[in-house]
Amino acid sequence: MFGGVFGGGSQKPAQPAMGGMPMGQAPMDPNAQMAAAEQEMEMVTDMFARISDLCYQKCLIQRYSDEELTKAESVCADRCVAKYFQVNREVTDKLAKMSQARQ
After folding, report:
1. CA 72, 75, 80, 81 torsion: positive or negative?
2. pTM
3. N or C: at which end does the chain have fewer Cβ atoms within 10 angstroms?
């Protein structure tokens, strides 16, 4: 259900070859690996913040009459997050296809 950044879609990830690197890719130097990991962490953190803000504004009642989420709030938040990831995956797939077509 959660594709896109988290890779939970139906696509199979590239299988690592010997040494843990995906086949067809040269090993990265440690500084480049750290930079890539930091960039990915920033992207995940940004996505989490966007989802939190968007779904909070859309789904949660601002009166706080109860300390627990209502059933409606819970269902709305679940659907909001699922839709966000679905759209993210579809946009990512579309951009990848467009990029491949240009090559």
Report:
1. positive
2. 0.61
3. C
